[in-house]
Design goal:
Elements (H helix, E strand, L loop, with lengths): L6 H29 L4 H37 L3 H29 L3 H5 L4 H11 L1 H16 L3 H24 L3 H23 L10 H33 L3 H38 L2 H37 L3 H33 L3 H23 L5 H30 L1
Helix pairs in contact: 1-7, 1-10, 2-3, 2-5, 2-6, 2-9, 2-10, 3-6, 5-8, 6-7, 6-8, 7-8, 9-13, 10-11, 10-12, 11-12, 12-14, 13-14
Length: 422
């Protein structure tokens, strides 16, 4: 982990994480496909609870990012004892946050059917999922830990195995008429098995000892990362609401475009996480030449992937569109929006060079502020243009502008830090 970075080594770090993110998304899609056989009421109930679970996981995801950033720096400093304590403290904090989250959601769960206008089976589903929330939260932190210490391949294989078992057991419980409850029990069973395995696997490199100083550092990073994620969630919610008001056909196209974007975004985010780990380690080494080399290697890889990923996205998008849309009008709407998605995506992946580095050097406060500014710009532009003749195209123009501004702001911050370090 402390050898000089090469393109091959960076790919070995980033690609397994990127594919793991893709597999995680695939796991969610499989659940959705299986549940469709139970009827529309079941799909609506689980879909609504998916929104709640997504919100519940937000704080744990923020904590995981903070843990990875601090852990990678400590690995670079070659402080093995402290690296063990960092993840141990993150697990302790995770358990506390999980308990509070479980209690809160359990108390307010009776309002969910009316709030989302879905079947009361959603209460059964979310109650069962709460039983496994702590396990899934611990899995998130420990998988982040294992990836950071160089076990990306193992975690990717573990996730693939989990997806296969998830599919098999989902089909079995649906076939045996256990319905929505059966699907929920499958999910928490797999999470529990992963949790036990990872706790045992991490036994030698995680120390469960509370340290006030380390916990304070984790919280300092956590709070800004949490703000960044909250802003993104609000932004996404408003974005969807605006399109839903334009028209039924436009929203049908929008749902497919968002899914295509989510698939590519999962890959991009995973690749960025790999960059964060590498830069975090180099910042701990405190060697300017090695840091310069790492940035050059990452720049070359980003230049390649910023071309490859959009091209692959176009191919996948065309295939999905021809399968999903049978009416010419839907296809026309789709192809009018696709170029905006691709331009935005190019800006997003080319900007990953700056995002990954800024996370690696723990610029979480700036990233939160950047997200707030760009999300406000996106919402304002989307709102104005959605009421013009541009319609859905106007909304996706706001996405393109959002990606461009995020990249420009991140690039500017990166250049300021580079000047200060000279």
């Amino acid at each position: 982990m402390n050898e000089e970075l090469t393109a091959k080594k960076q790919l070995k770090i980033s690609l397994p994480i990127a594919f793991e993110n893709f597999v995680n998304l695939l796991m969610t899609l499989i659940d959705t496909l299986v549940v469709t056989t139970l009827g529309t009421s079941a799909v609506g109930a689980i879909g609504a609870m998916g929104v709640i679970i997504d919100i519940m996981q937000m704080s744990i995801q923020s904590l995981n990012t903070a843990n990875i950033a601090l852990l990678s720096k400590t690995i670079g400093e070659k402080n093995d004892e402290q690296s063990k304590i960092i993840t141990g403290n993150s697990i302790i904090i995770t358990i506390v946050i999980s308990i509070l989250t479980i209690l809160l959601v359990y108390l307010i769960r009776p309002i969910f059917p009316g709030l989302f206008n879905v079947d009361k089976i959603c209460i059964t589903y979310i109650t069962i999922r709460l039983i496994g929330f702590m396990q899934s939260s611990i899995v998130m932190i420990l998988t982040g830990h294992q990836r950071t210490i160089g076990k990306q391949g193992m975690i990717m294989i573990l996730r693939i195995i989990a997806v296969i078992f998830n599919l098999i057991f989902d089909l079995v419980v649906v076939k045996l008429d256990y319905g929505v409850a059966g699907v929920a029990w499958v999910t928490i069973s797999i999470d529990t098995a992963l949790c036990i395995f990872l706790i045992l696997k991490s036994k030698s490199n995680v120390k469960y000892k509370f340290d006030k100083g380390i916990s304070k550092q984790i919280f300092d990073f956590f709070k800004w990362n949490c703000v960044e994620r909250i802003v993104s969630k609000v932004d996404k919610f408003v974005f969807n609401i605006l399109v839903s008001r334009i028209g039924e056909m436009e929203y049908a196209v929008h749902v497919i475009v968002i899914q295509i974007r989510d698939v590519s975004q999962a890959f991009i985010q995973g690749f960025s996480d790999g960059i964060t780990i590498s830069i975090g380690i180099e910042s701990g080494n405190n060697n300017k030449e090695r840091m310069k080399n790492a940035k050059n290697v990452i720049r070359k890889l980003i230049n390649i992937f910023s071309v490859v990923v959009p091209i692959l996205t176009i191919i996948i998008a065309v295939i999905i569109a021809n399968i999903s849309f049978k009416e010419n009008e839907l296809l026309l709407i789709f192809y009018s929006v696709l170029p905006l998605l691709i331009i935005g995506q190019y800006e997003e992946i080319s900007g990953t060079y700056y995002y990954g580095i800024l996370r690696g050097i723990r610029e979480f406060k700036f990233l939160a502020q950047r997200n707030f500014v760009t999300s406000v710009i996106k919402i304002v532009i989307a709102t104005i243009l959605s009421y013009t003749v541009l319609g859905i195209k106007g909304v996706w123009i706001s996405y393109m502008v959002y990606c461009i501004v995020q990249k420009l702001l991140s690039k500017r911050r990166y250049e300021i830090i580079e000047e200060q370090s000279k």
